[in-house]
User: What shape does this take?
Amino acid sequence: MATCRPSRRPICRPVSAGNNLGLKVLVGRFRKVHAIGLREELEFFRKLPSIVLVIHHVAMATDSCDRCFDHQSRILRVARPKAKAILPAYIAKLNACKSFEALHSQLRQVLSPVRGLGELYIYDAALRLGVYLRLAPNLIYLFTPAPA
Assistant: This one.
């Protein structure tokens, strides 16, 4: 288990729509700023001893210190406990997924009706659970902000 300290991860800053940064530049920035933390996060999920514990951390979007991940702290307070209540009933179906895409689809079907859980939450849940199940994405998933 990691030693729990205040988060030192840099705060993400949105890139303005008028900024024509190429994908290569954006990926380079991501790797420079976030890659190490992401590797550590995913390693935590990979090493958890049971799927029940994985489901807890996936549903609650919490790290090894049971802190909510920074970018998921604005999720409605009631939404994550609802996910935690729903997911255990689907453990067999989640375990049966043979690809990341199937896992993502199953999570989307089960979690998208929960008010407050959006596409990013569902993708992150699939990524974290996928690491435990040894399922990696074959595609790059890009998300655009919802229109205001």
Observations:
- The chain has six helices and no strands.
- The mean pLDDT is 84.
